[in-house]
Specification:
The chain is an all-beta fold and 200 residues long. It has one domain: Outer Surface Protein A, domain 3, CATH 3.90.930. Helices cover 0% and strands 53% of the residues. The chain is built from no helices and 15 strands. The chain has a 15-stranded antiparallel sheet that branches. It is flat.
């Protein structure tokens, strides 16, 4: 028989709560995260909130900026359940949005400049860029057309547009979206978790 346990980590100097989570412990088999996990900024505000079911991500996963603005939102509802994944800037504007299945990008995604204009648009398959991607400048002029195969750019055609800056600044780092890299990888149940830096 197993049992659930609540666990907490606090700052040894201040006593401030840094991390709280629950685990399901099975004698002789170790522990698995089970239930809600929360990680806090040094100012006490919520940084991450995510759910687990017997060690596997489930439900809504959300992260926040220190000012309380939501930073990311994705859902783990099963391999056949697509839901919208969203990234926000610190000012509350959407920086990227598109469908995802269990944290892996699928279908048409759009990335936006800080001024709200569309920066890039294209398709993801199995979490990788695929096919034609279009890019626009901050002023709304068409900048490029790129062709990707399994996330590798195989061709690019420059188009009109005066903005030389890459639209990549509109896109959150891939690790913010995928469940496997360290940014969203479930941290070990009994080790200290470092706060995740905000996307650039």
């Amino acid at each position: 028989m197993g049992r659930e346990e609540e666990r907490r980590e606090v700052d040894p100097q201040t006593g401030r709560l840094e991390h709280e989570w629950s685990v399901f412990v099975t004698p002789g088999r170790g522990s698995l995260k089970h239930g809600t996990e929360r990680i806090y900024f040094p100012n006490g505000k919520l940084h991450w909130e995510r759910e687990y079911r017997y060690g596997k991500p489930t439900g809504a996963w959300r992260s926040f900026y220190e000012n309380g603005q939501e930073r990311t939102e994705c859902f783990y509802l099963g391999p056949d359940v697509p839901r919208t994944m969203t990234f926000w800037r610190e000012d509350g504007k959407v920086s990227a949005q598109g469908p995802a299945v269990d944290g892996s990008r699928r279908g048409t995604w759009r990335f936006y400049w800080a001024n709200g204009r569309l920066a890039e648009e294209g398709e993801y398959k199995e979490g990788m860029r695929e096919g034609t991607w279009m890019g626009w400048s901050r002023e709304g002029k068409r900048r490029f057309e790129r062709i990707y195969k399994k996330n590798v750019r195989v061709s690019q055609r420059e188009m009109s547009g005066d903005d030389p800056a890459p639209a990549a600044e509109a896109e959150p780092p891939p690790s913010d979206a995928e469940p496997s890299p360290s940014d969203t990888k479930p941290p070990p149940s009994d080790t200290k978790t470092s706060p995740v830096p905000p996307p650039q």
